[in-house]
Amino acid sequence: MPEALVIVEDLHKSFLHMGRRLDVLRGIDLNIHAGQILAIVGASGAGKSTLLHCIGTLDLPSTGRIRLGGEELTTMSSSRLAAVRNRSIGFVFQFHHLLPEFNALENVMLPGMIQGRPRKELERRAQALLEEVRYDEDGNPVTSNLADYGMISAAELPSFEVVHMETPTFLNPLGAKGIGESGTIGSTPAVQSAVVDAVSHLGVRHIDMPATAEKVWRAIRDAG
Ligand SMILES: Nc1ncnc2c1ncn2[C@@H]1O[C@H](COP(=O)(O)OP(=O)(O)OP(=O)(O)O)[C@@H](O)[C@H]1O
Ligand SMILES: [Mg+2]
Questions:
Q1: Which tens digits make up the pLDDT trace of 14-23?
Q2: Which of 14, 18, 125, 202 is 20 to 30 Å apart from 176, CA to CA?
Q3: Which residues are CB-contacts of 172 (< 8 A; sequence separation ≥ 6)?
C-alpha cells in the first residue's frame, strides 16, 4: 500500500487560556489515504477544529509531526506553506468567509488567480460549479438577479464575427444542429467530469451542471 496522503504523528496542541494551560490535543496519531473520506466526530470543545486547523496549516501544533504528500508541514517556511495551502488543501468552513469585494464566481476563482492562471480558464471552471439560471414551467427566469447568475459583462467579451452555419439533421424538430458553448471548450466539461469521477464509486454516473453541493448530494443519495 502506498504511503498515506496525510500522516499525523503524536500531535499535541495546548492553548494558554487566562493563565492556565489547556491541553486540547494529546498525542493524536492518524493516517489518511488518498481518496479516503473521513469524518472526525466528537463533543463540542473536544478539539476537532483544532486538529483540522493543524492539518490544514492554519495553526501550528505545539509538538508532533504532520506529513502531507511526503512533505513535513510543521517545519516548513511560511511562504512554502502558503503555496501548499493554495494548491493542495480545500477548506469548507462552518461559516462562509466569502470576500465581499468579489462576486460569487471570483470567490471560487481566487486560489487560481493567486497562482496566476488565465482568468477565462478559471471562470469556465467556476461556471461548472456555480453558474445557474433557473426557469419556471412557463420559461420565466426565477433566478432573482444577475448576481445570482454571476454573468460576465459585455465589455469582457472578445469581439468576433458571427458565422451563421447550420448542419441539417433529421434528429430534432428544428431540423438543424449546432454546437453549444460547452462543446467547444474543454475546461467546463473537464471540471464536471472530475466531479462525477470523484463520486462514481458511490454509483453516480451523471450530474447536471452546475455541480453545486446540493446537486452532488442529491446524486449520491439517489444512487445509494
Ligand atoms: N485560540 C484558542 N485559545 C484558547 N483556547 C482555545 C483556542 N482555540 C480553541 N480553544 C479551546 O480548545 C478546545 C477545543 O476547541 P475546538 O474548537 O477545537 O473544539 P471542536 O471540537 O471543534 O468544537 P465544536 O464542535 O464546538 O466546533 C475548546 O475548549 C476551546 O475553547
Ligand atoms: Mg469546531
A1: 999 889 999 9
A2: 125
A3: none
